[in-house]
Amino acid sequence: MIKLIRRGLLLTLIPISAVLGSTSSLIKEIEIKDSLGITGNAFIYPSEVEADSQGNIYILESGETRIQVFDRNGRFLKSLGKKGQGPGEFQSPVFIRVSNNDELYVVDITRRCISVFTRRMEFKKNITFPSHILVFNQFEIDRNDDILCGYAPLEDNIDQYIISKYDNNFVFRNTVIRFKNIASIIRLKGLTIRPLSNSPAITWTLSENGYVYSCRSDEGLMFICDLDGAIVQKTDLKYEKKNLSNAEKDLLLKSWNPRMRSLIPEKVIPKIRPLLRNIKAVGKDIFILKEKLDENRFAYDVWKGVLSLKESFILPIRIASYKNGKAYTIEFKLVDETKDLEDMKISRYSLDIDGK
């Protein structure tokens, strides 16, 4: 039985399949409105959501090249950035993170820099990527405001994926972990590309206690590393490998643009489903997204920080980020297939996995 907990603004009772345990619960608190005060179908391709220590919510709209900021109650505060080359402007923003001191970091892959905004939401500085990084697929900010990023090096014939730590000016500190023989990395005329929707084979997260949890999706292996690069633990998660069906392969091929599709060698098309699609640090636990069952069901495993399986469950949401006991989601729903319109909304949930 689910207990309706009265906290937040908008309460929704989640179906029994979403309950994580007999005493755990997932309660929708608010559905974020855009700056015009309209819920749903107003955001233009939101791709990232973050929150600071005060509960302010930052939503990256890739389609509008801007970040909308809301207070903890969903009230619009400010819009940051616009298309351009000037200070505080973006070309292709892809990631946002909020640091321990509530500064906002925005990764712009076209300008090859990270734009930093103060806690007062004012532009502070740009940090240029090091020359050996063309683009990276994920980054995090640790408690000391050091930058962690995962990338494929530019050197020819090195099919590796590296997670490295840099200081706040992108000066190299150390390598955290290096993975070799990553089949999803493809090099064409000196360029490194990642054409697969489930690429790269590595997915990772930074936990609140300062450890990097990284997974090889193709092998089902999890590594725990400290920020100095020492491997604390390596675990085989013992996930069963399943062949990719013809329908799944066709869907994957359709996700590439025609030019990209013509460049991809047959040998790099995956033959098995990814064992691990995404991992998130949720408090002291690690949430592993194993499979998207359908538009409203996501299969998760929860592992304790020491990598012992805690429980498995199905959620009606995909967790985009987790901050201060709250889970944030970006939810998409196809409205009109002929026009390719999607109903998009950002929601905050109270996620109680221990029944406290």
What report would you give on this structure?
With 356 residues, the chain is mainly beta. It has a domain at 40-128: Thrombin, subunit H, CATH 2.40.10. Helices cover 4% and strands 45% of the residues. It has two helices and 26 strands. It has helices spanning 246-254, 258-263, and strands at residues 25-32, 46-51, 57-61, 66-70, 76-80, 93-98, 104-108, 113-117, 123-128, 136-141, 147-151, 160-166, 172-180, 186-188, 191-193, 202-206, 212-216, 221-225, 231-236, 278-282, 285-294, 297-304, 309-315, 321-323, 326-336, 341-352. Strands 1-26-25-24 form a four-stranded antiparallel sheet, with no helix packed on it. It has a four-stranded antiparallel sheet with strand order 2-3-4-5, with no helix packed on it. A hairpin with an 8-residue loop joins strand 11 (147-151) and strand 12.
